From TrEMBL, chains A, B:
This is DNA processing protein. Belongs to the DprA/Smf family. Gene3D superfamilies: 3.40.50.450. Residues 93-304 form the Smf/DprA SLOG domain. GO terms for biological process: DNA-mediated transformation.
Amino acid sequence: MTSPAADSGEPSHEAVARACLTAVVPPADPLLGALLAERGAAAVWRALLAGESLRSGTGDAPDPARVERWRSRAAALDAETLLTSAADLGVRLVTPGDPEWPVQLDQLAENRPYALWVRGTHDLRNACLRSVAMVGSRAATGYGLHVAGELACALAERSWCAVSGGAYGIDAASHRGALAGGAPTVAVLACGLDMNYPRGHENLFGDVCARGTLVSEHPLGTRPTRHGFLVRNRLIAALTPGTIVVEAGRRSGALNTAKHTLELCRALMAVPGPITSALSAGCHQLLRDHRAVCVTGADDVAELVGHIGADLRSDGTAGPPPTQLDDEARRVLAGVPRGSGAGAATIALAAETGIDSALRCLGLLAAAGFVERGPAGWRRSDASRAQATGRVPL
Amino acid sequence: MTSPAADSGEPSHEAVARACLTAVVPPADPLLGALLAERGAAAVWRALLAGESLRSGTGDAPDPARVERWRSRAAALDAETLLTSAADLGVRLVTPGDPEWPVQLDQLAENRPYALWVRGTHDLRNACLRSVAMVGSRAATGYGLHVAGELACALAERSWCAVSGGAYGIDAASHRGALAGGAPTVAVLACGLDMNYPRGHENLFGDVCARGTLVSEHPLGTRPTRHGFLVRNRLIAALTPGTIVVEAGRRSGALNTAKHTLELCRALMAVPGPITSALSAGCHQLLRDHRAVCVTGADDVAELVGHIGADLRSDGTAGPPPTQLDDEARRVLAGVPRGSGAGAATIALAAETGIDSALRCLGLLAAAGFVERGPAGWRRSDASRAQATGRVPL
């Protein structure tokens, strides 16, 4: 598998620096987030190695012990091994500005991931265009597992991708339901993509990899930590236009994802259950306090997070017909190959337009399900299927 | 059992006319409602018998066929039998202005009942002061029956009275739960109080009668009709500060009560259930559309419909201690007998205050659980229990 950066040869200095930073600074460090925004990754990395000041223009002087921990880890890091071992396992690096970067993460501001490690057949940005997060208890009830699986499958049949955390219980039922329904699924892990945590999900992760996407902020070899799980939850909320809490007790970790969802002003949904079940008490509290909307099926979800006008219908159709595209979008669509992929520059040339215009059109076409971005570049979705379901063939 | 009107001897002309009107005009007739407000019941009754115009000052000329139906029924009515047969069965007549009249019904305006036929040991107005309506499907699931019974019982233990419709399913489970929890319960029937409809509830109605209140807008002998059920629902909604839909399919009659509840600006609550149950779909729709608040227990309900400050605590206490009463209220309370009842005039005399002031204080004392109005007049609730639970001993 080639890295998205392979089009332009080796990963840039910026990308390498971001990759290295994922290995030495725990995710969602606001100081590093601010420094990256101010100076760029390569400069921050150089300053870290050189022992220069890491004071952000907007913040107080950083805790010296913390910076020293970063510096000693940075000094010990072998960047070459970091990147080649990932490439050997088919893990690609996705950084801000890459075509595969999910721009919705930018709303996290200084808590935005430094970079993402991604594995799997599906383009992460494309998969998340029409996605919904599904979260809930690890120790789910039979009811919760049934509901998660059925809902993910019904959403998948309407071409909605389920994003979850790869854990036991509701997470796993959601991933499996989405795959059963024929859509990709995205598992956001709190450890390195080679760790197979939890161990019992080795097969599930293999399936997700083959027909969806595994994502992590952590480089290979990172073990999961409590902090890792909590910051991972913000990523699940930020990747998707909405989060469904399927089954959660009053102190479930899923409520942490719900909190992030509300902070990001995304749609929060909860599935009700029997009031006699302690594992639905968290969902009911969200409903009672008017923080979540009650959803009982894929139609409810599509109405809440779907594209206005496209997803109100329950007949499974979505996206405008190609005849409604403007001239430029139609030329760009014509320039996208059907089988293998092509870079944006090639497509822009074929469409007789600029790269910026081509990228804008490609984004719109992807959102409408006409094209998708795979590892080898942009390619045409099967037109009839795209028109019927608004989404790519699997 | 004596009628509340017995204090002042025979029922007034107004009351008798209202009783007769319940027998000749179907409930909730807006023309009759307007006429009663304009002319009073005795004048309307005389005009009806005399064949005079029944045109309301605010409306169009009434349909002559409709008025003729009323007139012929009125001519055939034996008022004496109507009243004595009710009294023989222990059924009392309650009309607007009576101390037992639930003034919250006045919000129904021209749809207010002409009069109520009441049977049972508990004062209707008093029972409804601290009440909640519980409605739902007749063909309820085991889950719904369990939840209705438990919720009504838990509310009863906090001195909340359940008001329902006496039907099979959720209604019956609510009445039984309330009785099991030691509170009175009010069954609002869509037929005469001698009809025992549904037949299988003869024993239940006996229990409600012995430890609560049966109510109907219809005189003895009236069979239930579809129209009767629908207008009965407005009464359930109007008697209580809030309605809980425990279990309801998408087309359940309980949703009709929910509609009345919202129209009257009372609190609407719904109990969630498994999304796999069609009999919870009506509840979930109310929640999804933000028409009802999600409730999962007595604490939720008390917070929504309780008196501010008194019902936020879940330790079962309610009402101010007697030491917080003002001077006049304390004098009035001292004038209320402990065992049998006394009229407001007697109490006002003992308290050295006017009748109006005494009635105002008695209302407040009843709301706080210090006194109750029984068939023989006002009497003291057991003070310690009243202070502990805010309600009367049974």
